[in-house]
Amino acid sequence: MNYARPTAAYAHVKLFLKTGLAEGRWAPGSLMPSEAELVEQFSVSRMTVSRAVRELQAEGLVERVQGVGTFAAQPYRASSTLTIRDLHTEISERGHRHRADVQLVQAETVAAGGLAQRLGLPVGSDVFHTLIVHYEDDVALLCEDRYVNPSRAPDYLSVDFTKTTPTNYLLAVAPLWEAQYSIEAGTPTVQEAQLLGIEPADPCLIIVRRTESQGTPITVARLVHPGSRYTIEGSFKP
Amino acid sequence: MNYARPTAAYAHVKLFLKTGLAEGRWAPGSLMPSEAELVEQFSVSRMTVSRAVRELQAEGLVERVQGVGTFAAQPYRASSTLTIRDLHTEISERGHRHRADVQLVQAETVAAGGLAQRLGLPVGSDVFHTLIVHYEDDVALLCEDRYVNPSRAPDYLSVDFTKTTPTNYLLAVAPLWEAQYSIEAGTPTVQEAQLLGIEPADPCLIIVRRTESQGTPITVARLVHPGSRYTIEGSFKP
DNA sequence: CAGTGGTCTAGACCACTCG
DNA sequence: GAGTGGTCTAGACCACTGT
To answer: Domain A87-226: what homologous superfamily?
Structure first.
């Protein structure tokens, strides 16, 4: 049976603080009620109050300093949850067909410069390189140029990338990624334009992503999406 | 400093589960140890185990079903923290100078169509409209075309936007945003190209953002950044 | 020193799912 | 009914910051 609003006690406390913050009841940086005060006010145990405030802290709405108190956070940043998904899954969920056109799968010798450093490899060692064009119902959606650290994915070259995307395979081999990315608008290279079937001057969304797993660099990828065909969407809540 | 010592008990449990997931010890979707088992294994109380698993759940690493158990999450999405910041702050932190060129500040009558609906306003009512070009050290970095719901920011038109950015002002008036955004690559309008001092064919990063505060639509903005001058960067951790 | 948050315990009751 | 997670309590000890 559902009562009207039988929310958990910790949720009550959390809601109280959250709406207070939304109404500007505690200015950014100012001191908020202590746990002891909230215990008194809501007649709950300290563990309950603690959980409420800890979750607000995790959401970035308050800052806590041991021995000092809890403070309203500066609301100058709103954190968002940007979901990076496997392209195959994404296309399938739209009810469309995904096809990968594998242009290149090979081992190369890594030359000096940024790439060796970014993959944590000594100059002259092997690196795996793939170049794949992804289609959604025969429309080119992405040109994926990727380098992979062989030590963490030794079987990478033998994967059938018409059936599994590199993202998917690498997630399975090395879960729990950390990644840095940059997103910018630019023009494709001549080769990319040709592969995507667009003009070299057409604007593209270019994502460069570098991922690590447990401190080891895994892969560096340059993802080029035709601007007219691809959009990143998302939302964020405080 | 020292990161050696065995941290909190709940952190031990959390680390155990997290590394196990990273090593593929529990396949995605498979059943993980119950709270009772972890209580036994680590000789801690159930509250402690509960906290560890709950935090993993918040991080999206596990899924829990009451009455059933805890399951390793499908690693098909990695959540990222994309930080939307006030442009003035961002530029200042780079040690540069921010200047806003206010092209337009006026009230308009909202016509039928998407805008009225997206701002939750009846057709024919007033809406505030600003068009501002932002410069970093005299280089045009952003053309900001923004519509604002007057009911939540009645003083919007009297703000001096050469001193305060709209983002900044709206954050103060209506904190705790929720927003939906889309990011794409495209070309600017003729007017935008002129204001930014670029060619109409130059690729731009175009962000369309709609924000709400406590369920009320606040503002809809179209942010056009020259692709050659602006990049979104970020990182995500599992 | 008094006050704050950080953590922990050993129980408890509940709602839920499944066989 | 057995097992699961969801929540809660009334204490407790600790580490830290301020005066």
So the answer is: Chorismate lyase-like (3.40.1410.10)
